[in-house]
Every structure is written in structure tokens, then in C-alpha cells.
Amino acid sequence: MRYADFGPHDIVLLLNGLGVSLTLFLTTSLVGVVLGALLAVVRYYRVLVARELVTFVTEMLKNSPVLVQLFLVFFGIPALFKIDVTPFEAAFFTLALNTAAFVYVIVVSAVESIDREQIEAGRVFGLTRWQVLRHVIAPQAVAFATGPLTALLVNQLQVTSLISVIGVVDLTKVGDILNMRTLKPFIVWTVVGVLYYLAAKIIALAGGFVERRLTAHSAWKGL
Amino acid sequence: MRAGRSIALTTARDAVETEIGFTRTVAGLNLIVSDLAPHIALLAQGALLTVEVCVLALAGAVVVGAAIAMMRASGSRLLRGIATVYVDIFRNIPFLVQLFFFYYGLPELGIYVDAFATGVLALSIAGGAFASDVIRSGILAIDPGIVEAAQVYGLSRRTTFLKIVMPIALRLSVRPLGSVLINLILTSSILSTITLNELTGSAKIVASQTFRPFEVYAVLLLAYASLTYLLSIAIARFHRRLNRGVLEAV
Amino acid sequence: MIRIENLKKAFGKVTVLDGIDLSIEPGEVVSILGSSGSGKSTLIRCINGLERIDAGRITVDDFDVSNPKELAEARKRSGTVFQLFNLYPHLSALRNVTLAPVEVLKRNAAEAEKEGRALLESVGLGDRADAYPAQLSGGQRQRVGICRALAMKPRYLLLDEVTSALDPEMTAEVLEILADLTGRGTTMIFVTHEVAFARSISDRIVFLDQGRLLVDLPCETFFAEDGGMANARVAQFLSKMRKD
């Protein structure tokens, strides 16, 4: 290698990688949170079989390595269905589903944390199921779930590093490339680690901020 | 290992197995079974390696976690600070990055250890950050009166910690430490990226040899999920048995 | 001898002990009476060094409990039995008894075990030596607690409301053992609500009220109309205790 040492372009490379990591993190988190919450609502409406199916799939996703899930989607699905799946697509699909599985569990337990009497009272006063969900359950569940959700998202950011294994050029993959080129593992992986660390701290701070606002708002409810 | 089936295929790429048989005639589940059967031994070896890595890493994580928990409970500001930073760092940086740090970094320091040792080390260090939280809450759950009793009978701080606080805290921590173990098992799949052919690593080999990645990874996913599920049940039972009586008295 | 001079102790702004002077001679049985919150338990916790004292001085056989270097010696001379037993939940009854002799007094393990079994035997727990605290009744646990203290062969036994977590039947079995101990010349400082029992075993009664030592009299005098009962607070306390 002729250009073995670090150059200014490496900063661009690192920032690009960070951008890919964060983009995937943010988009899959958004899709995952929405999907997970929707699935929890399906559970609330007691659709036949759906509940068991969702429970089974979420348990599978929660209790198996994300790396294996990535391999299944990236290597398995194209082989079985004879379709092309890019690393980015596979990463997006897997991470979104994985996040959804954890979100589902968090939301379900948040809903279950709400007093049954409140829900029954709402129904007694003639509110529809949807109105109860909208005005009684949702606000409290959101406040209850923010803490666990923040912890989950901090974790999911770290999980994104696995997509480098199937070839997405995220922050970790950039680290890998720089490591191979410069042969300075301590510097490379420390810098990469610091970037991940800072991103995790920002997520945690944001989550804490949201949680404080939500609980301050609902404090009078005795939450 | 050899099933002696219809076609023998030689692959140049995969060094471990040069000859494998596979059938393309039967459909459905049968196909998965007959295709994977010749590779069960390899997968079993991988599973065994996963178990070995995780058992060692759990032991390492508990030792590291106990040390960190002890530091966090200590009177020294410096020790408490170090422990807090340790937990913060290793919980907020992806394991893959930590793993590469050690895998590529240790040889730079003149420490040449194999992927197995590196994996156990990295898992112990990362697991220790989680275990320390668990053990810390175990320590905090102990009735202060029990520690006072040890004090008035003249037990040294060291003895009190080793013979009273730690044993009780670890007993109380069995179930949450079980969750740490399950996490270690799932995380250990990442060791396949540093050439360690544990369960996921060996499945990768099988997938490329059989050209049936979907079946292989689906089975692998099921295997991990059932393994961790059964383990969590066993841990919950063990926790109840070990703490029969201890819990209510604490 | 345990000597307490001008002891003061406050928790935040609340003064719990306010200038206590008290000496206890070897061989004495002293009961400390007083209503809840009078500072009785805190006094015990100051003597065994569990609470840091704010002012004054406590010495156990001339070892100052406020001095970290002397505290260990002071503690070796006294044994504490706790209200809520505070047994080590992960150790058998026998190991609860032998742990400190082996670890602190560096006694031979087999020897300590033999003595521990004998102690448990003497309180009627010979067959429960290998049971864990959770497998024992409250009364049995407290008897183990007493054995744990006695195993250190203390000169002074500090008993902090040792029966108040027990029902009457269990209280009786524990008191029986304590009465037996007084007959053997063990020095005891007995914080209690059991007025009748205190009267039957004590040489001296000390009465605390709002952190002050109000009355310190020989047992008989304390319960005499012209003795302790002449003090209005004592009379009030005793009449209240009788009603209960």
C-alpha cells in the first residue's frame, strides 16, 4: 500500500460511514417504532391468530443473534426466492423488523401497566375502543415506554455496526477499511468507538429530555 | 460426516470440508433434514465452541463485574470514577468495534492470542459491564443489618465482602446474570467475524457448502431461539431453588 | 467495664442522645427502659460502634470505640444480638455461629464447630445446626443470634430489643435462655420493652426519656413507690406498659 498513512480524506470517509450508520439507525428506528406500536395495537384488538403469530415472531427475533437474522435475509432470501437483495436493503429490512420486535414488547408491557379500571371506566362512559386507546391508553403508555425505548434505541445504534459484516459501508466498515490500510488498529478503533459513543450519548440525552417532558406533563395523573 | 449421497462436490473455497453430498430430489422439510444431516457434526462442533466461549466469558464477566461493582461501592472517588467510566464505555460502544480493537490491537502490543482467547476476553470485558450492574443491585438489595452484624463481630471489610456480601449478592443475581449469559450467547455469534467457527461461523461454512443459506440460517435462528428459551427457563428454576429462603430473609 | 461519658448523638437536627453518663461493671445485668424513640437502641449502636458519636466518649475495657484502631478490640469484648436477628441468610445456623470465631479470633475450624454445636445444643437447637435461617422460626433464629454472640465469648452482651419481633410464645423461649445466661454471670445490657422480665433479671434499671438518662437505680429501688416510681415520667411509662 502506497498511501498507508492517515490523510485528510479519511475524515470524509469516517463522516460518510457515520452518516450511513445514522441514516440506517434513524430510518429503521422510525419504521420499527411505528411497526412495533401497530402490532401492539393489533394485540389490543384481539385479532384471531395474529396475536400468537406476532408473539412467535417477536420472540424469535428477540432471542436470536441479529447477525444470523442479517445472514438469513441477505444470503437466505435471495437464494430461496431468486431475487436480488442489496446489502443496504437487507440491513434496512432486518434492523427495522428487529427493532419492531423489541418495541412491540415494550409497548405491550406499557399498555399492561395501565390500570384496567381506567380502561373499563372509559368504556363505561361510552368511549369507543379507539377513543379509549387514543385518550386513555396512548398518553400514559408513551410516558411509561419512553425510558425503555431510549435504552432500546441506544442498543439498536450499536446493533447497526453488524451490517458492516454483510458489506454495508457504515462507520464500522470504514473503520475496517482504514484499519487494513493504515495498520493502526488502536487509533482507528478508538476513533470509531468515540464516534459511536458520542452518538449513543446524544440519543440517551434526547430520550431523557423527552421522558422528562412527558412525565412532567402527566405528573398530576400520579404517574 | 459423510453420507455418501448422489453427488460429490468439490469446493476450492472452503477448506474445512472438501467433499459433501446433497440431494436435490426431495422437497420440503425432508430436504432441509437430508441436506443438513451430513453437516450436523460440524454444527455440533460449532455449538460446543459457542458453549465453551460463553461459559468462560460468563465466568470472566462475573469476575470483572464483581470487581467493578466492588469499585463502585468503594469509598475511593477515583475507583468509583474508573468503574463508572468503564461501564459507560463498554455499554455504549458496539461490541463489534470492541472486538476489532482487541483482535487487531493486541498483536500490536506483542500479545499474540488466537481468536478464541480474544473472543473470550472481549466478551468478558463487555459482559463485565453488564454483570457489574446486576451484581451492584444485588449488593444494594442486601439488608444493611446483615452487614452490620458482620461489622460488630469484627469481620474485616475484606472478609465481610468476600464471605457475606458477595455470596448473597451473587445468589440474588442468578436470574439477571442468566440474562447476561443469554446476551453473551447471542453476542458470541459476532465472534464469527474474527474467524472463530463457533455456531454461527460453522453455519456459514455449511451454508456456503450446501448452497442452501435460507434453510441453514432459518435452522440456526431456531436453534439459538430455542437454546436461549430453554436456558431462561432453567435459570429461573435454578434462581428459585438457590434463593429458597434466602430471599425472604434478606 | 463499659464507661459512657457525656454521650451525644443526633441524626440531622434530631437529637437522639443528649449527654448520657453510664458505667456498667462486669457481671452486672442492666436493663435499659424507655418509650419508643427514647434513644435506647441508638445507645446500643453507639456502644458497638455502628453509629459514630457526636460528642463524649465510650470505652469498653478502656478501648475507645471512637478510635478506629481500638474499635476492633472493643468489639471483640462485646457481642450484639439484634432485634431483627440479622443472621447471614446464606449460611447454616452452625456457620452463622462459627464464622466470626474462625475469621476474627482465628480459631481452629473443627474446634469452633464443636463449640458451636454445643452452644446450639444448649439453646435446644442441636438438631437444627445445619438448617438455614429461612428454615427456622423467629424464636429459633433469635436463639441462633444469641449463640452467634456467645461464640465470641464476649464480656458484655448487648441485647437490642431481641424479642420485639417475636410473638409471645417465641418471646418466652428466648427470655428463658437469657434468664439462664444471667445465672452464669454474663454481663448484659438489655434494651427491652419487657418490663416484667427486666425486673426479674436485672441488677440495675436505666430509664431513658427523650435522649436523656432520667433514672439509674438498682432494680428493686426502681420499682419502689418512693424510688423510680417517684419520677412522673417513669410512673407514666410503667402504667402504660402494664396496660399493654
TrEMBL record, chain A:
<keyword id="KW-0813">Transport</keyword>
<keyword id="KW-1133">Transmembrane helix</keyword>
<dbReference type="GO" id="GO:0022857">
    <property type="term" value="F:transmembrane transporter activity"/>
</dbReference>
<dbReference type="InterPro" id="IPR035906">
    <property type="entry name" value="MetI-like_sf"/>
</dbReference>
<feature type="transmembrane region" description="Helical">
    <location>
        <begin position="20"/>
        <end position="45"/>
    </location>
</feature>
<feature type="transmembrane region" description="Helical">
    <location>
        <begin position="66"/>
        <end position="85"/>
    </location>
</feature>
<dbReference type="GO" id="GO:0043190">
    <property type="term" value="C:ATP-binding cassette (ABC) transporter complex"/>
</dbReference>
<dbReference type="InterPro" id="IPR000515">
    <property type="entry name" value="MetI-like"/>
</dbReference>
<keyword id="KW-0812">Transmembrane</keyword>
<dbReference type="InterPro" id="IPR010065">
    <property type="entry name" value="AA_ABC_transptr_permease_3TM"/>
</dbReference>
<feature type="domain" description="ABC transmembrane type-1">
    <location>
        <begin position="18"/>
        <end position="207"/>
    </location>
</feature>
<dbReference type="InterPro" id="IPR043429">
    <property type="entry name" value="ArtM/GltK/GlnP/TcyL/YhdX-like"/>
</dbReference>
<feature type="transmembrane region" description="Helical">
    <location>
        <begin position="91"/>
        <end position="111"/>
    </location>
</feature>
<comment type="similarity">
    <text>Belongs to the binding-protein-dependent transport system permease family. HisMQ subfamily.</text>
</comment>
<keyword id="KW-0029">Amino-acid transport</keyword>
<keyword id="KW-1003">Cell membrane</keyword>
<keyword id="KW-0472">Membrane</keyword>
<protein>
    <submittedName>
        <fullName>Amino acid ABC transporter permease</fullName>
    </submittedName>
</protein>
<feature type="transmembrane region" description="Helical">
    <location>
        <begin position="132"/>
        <end position="154"/>
    </location>
</feature>
<dbReference type="Pfam" id="PF00528">
    <property type="entry name" value="BPD_transp_1"/>
</dbReference>
<feature type="transmembrane region" description="Helical">
    <location>
        <begin position="186"/>
        <end position="210"/>
    </location>
</feature>
<dbReference type="GO" id="GO:0006865">
    <property type="term" value="P:amino acid transport"/>
</dbReference>
UniProtKB/TrEMBL annotation, chain C:
<dbReference type="GO" id="GO:0015424">
    <property type="term" value="F:ABC-type amino acid transporter activity"/>
</dbReference>
<protein>
    <submittedName>
        <fullName>Amino acid ABC transporter ATP-binding protein</fullName>
    </submittedName>
</protein>
<comment type="similarity">
    <text>Belongs to the ABC transporter superfamily.</text>
</comment>
<keyword id="KW-0472">Membrane</keyword>
<dbReference type="InterPro" id="IPR050086">
    <property type="entry name" value="MetN_ABC_transporter-like"/>
</dbReference>
<dbReference type="InterPro" id="IPR027417">
    <property type="entry name" value="P-loop_NTPase"/>
</dbReference>
<dbReference type="InterPro" id="IPR017871">
    <property type="entry name" value="ABC_transporter-like_CS"/>
</dbReference>
<keyword id="KW-0547">Nucleotide-binding</keyword>
<dbReference type="GO" id="GO:0005886">
    <property type="term" value="C:plasma membrane"/>
</dbReference>
<dbReference type="InterPro" id="IPR003439">
    <property type="entry name" value="ABC_transporter-like_ATP-bd"/>
</dbReference>
<feature type="domain" description="ABC transporter">
    <location>
        <begin position="2"/>
        <end position="235"/>
    </location>
</feature>
<keyword id="KW-1003">Cell membrane</keyword>
<dbReference type="Pfam" id="PF00005">
    <property type="entry name" value="ABC_tran"/>
</dbReference>
<keyword id="KW-0029">Amino-acid transport</keyword>
<dbReference type="GO" id="GO:0016887">
    <property type="term" value="F:ATP hydrolysis activity"/>
</dbReference>
<keyword id="KW-0067">ATP-binding</keyword>
<keyword id="KW-0813">Transport</keyword>
<dbReference type="GO" id="GO:0005524">
    <property type="term" value="F:ATP binding"/>
</dbReference>
<dbReference type="InterPro" id="IPR030679">
    <property type="entry name" value="ABC_ATPase_HisP-typ"/>
</dbReference>
<dbReference type="InterPro" id="IPR003593">
    <property type="entry name" value="AAA+_ATPase"/>
</dbReference>
